[in-house]
Amino acid sequence: MYTSMMRRSALSGQYLVGPDVYGARRTQDFINAGLNGETNLDFIAVGDSNNLFTSGSGGYMSAIVRYIRTKASQYSTALYTIKNTQGWAEPNLTNLEGVAENGTLIAALANLQSAGTSGTWKPYGDVVVGRPWYNETGSIRSTFGTDGIMLFDGHPFFTTAFKYRVIRAQFASGGGSYFQGMCDKNNGTIFSPTTVVRPSCAGATNIDVADDLSCIAVPSATFTGSPKRQNANWVGTGIFPNPPFGVANVSNTGKFAGYYHCLYKNIGGCAVNSLFSEGGRSLRYLALGLQTCPSETIQTYLKNIRLRQIAARGAAGKVIVFIQCGMNDRVDTGTSVGTSPTGSNTGAGFVDNCNAVITVVTNAWSALGYPAEDLSFVVMVSHPVVSTASTGDTVMTAMASAVVTAYYQSNVVTVFDVRNSTKGPFLQSSGFYDAGGDSHLTTAGYDYIANELITKIRAA
């Protein structure tokens, strides 16, 4: 894949030129600056189940989090939406069932409605509450639940001060209040604050008000049970154990709509998020979902990533969109959805679908007025396989070759050619394939490729 033309382009120093990494040098600059603490860096993922695989591994997203923790500081958890797919990083494409104000759907809230197929906004009459579950490290699994953001003993935020941020709507009329807090999940004891706060949802209509709750450091010895679990959530009926937080008479009042939430610290560092990652999906499906979704939805997510960077450090940082797909694209015969439509199970089709995702995100970023030089993309075709089912590795090899050819002189997109970096037989002999088959990896396998991805971009 490394041609003489690519080699000549290296003379300018403008591009990364193999043998495993090609394209935009700005991605290298972003990663180095983020890991060196010079800026806040957010990864935002788009991809299939390998981004968030739950059979004990957590996929690439958890692997990148683990890499960050060994090299630098993690400044925030993901900015979670309320849809939880396979337990790691839920998509941003959720079906908002509607919050009425005087019988009329608020236009701003309508903009959060998407074409996603399995949205999970939960209505309580005229109250919409999110019910997320999340375990960042992948060490403990759960099905879709009502536990909010859960920190387990050993998480770097567990015994240090941090802030709990909720992004929610504000209503011009009829807006009520909700509860925001932190507790020991095993017994409901409140740690911070000593009394639960009641942010008001009344005021001028606003789609994305941010409430920050400062949470004190709690020694691990203070927590009960096993595992030790520190829980953050907004409170609505059914969200916390009854009574929520171990406090009687805690509930929402009036209208409430919560969109996103996260935990963050006032430091420099990196974070990993997911815009749209869903198991069993091809890049065509993901690109079409993003195209169909109102741009305002994507803008709201990107905006709140940037506002969180500013809240944490006092300055905007950088964003890398990580596109990882291919495993399901091998058998997707549908027509690609970019400007050069062709079969999605071809190299050209994969590139066309990549371009479609890049265009949607870039347009949303531009509509917000953010500098183009603060955004970059990384494209990686799924890891190599050794089995011959579903065309084996042949189609993905063609896709990998096509993305290198498409982006090797891009100023915005960086390609990591995982097939040049490692081979299927090596992954197999190393025990890196999941017990269920080579379409997924073990924790060690995801860690290995995430390490290859980041270290080789840094060194290119």
What is this structure's SSE topology?
Elements: H1 4-9, E1 15-17, E2 21-24, H2 26-35, E3 41-47, H3 59-71, E4 100-101, E5 104-105, H4 107-110, E6 122-124, E7 127-129, E8 133-135, E9 148-152, E10 162-170, E11 179-184, E12 190-197, E13 206-215, E14 229-235, E15 258-264, E16 270-277, H5 283-292, H6 295-313, E17 318-325, H7 347-367, E18 375-381, H8 394-407, E19 413-416, H9 418-421, H10 424-429, E20 433-434, E21 437-441, H11 443-459
Parallel strand pairs: 3-16, 3-17, 8-9, 17-18, 18-19
Antiparallel strand pairs: 1-2, 2-19, 4-5, 6-7, 9-14, 10-13, 10-15, 11-12, 11-14, 20-21
Helix pairs in contact: 2-11, 3-11, 5-7, 6-7, 7-8
As a whole number of angstroms, the C-alpha radius of gyration is 22 Å
**What CATH architecture label of the largest domain applies?**
3-Layer(aba) Sandwich
Flag low-confidence runs: 1-12, 82-146, 236-246
CATH class of the largest domain: Alpha Beta
What's the overall geometry?
globular
- Beta content comes to 15-25%
Number of distinct beta strands: 21
How do the strands line up in the largest sheet?
1-2-19-18-17-3-16
Distance between the termini: 16 Å
Oligomer: single chain
Our count of helices gives 11
CATH homologous superfamily title of the largest domain: SGNH hydrolase
Q: Might you state the CATH topology name of the largest domain?
A: Rossmann fold
Would you tell me the overall average pLDDT?
A: 77
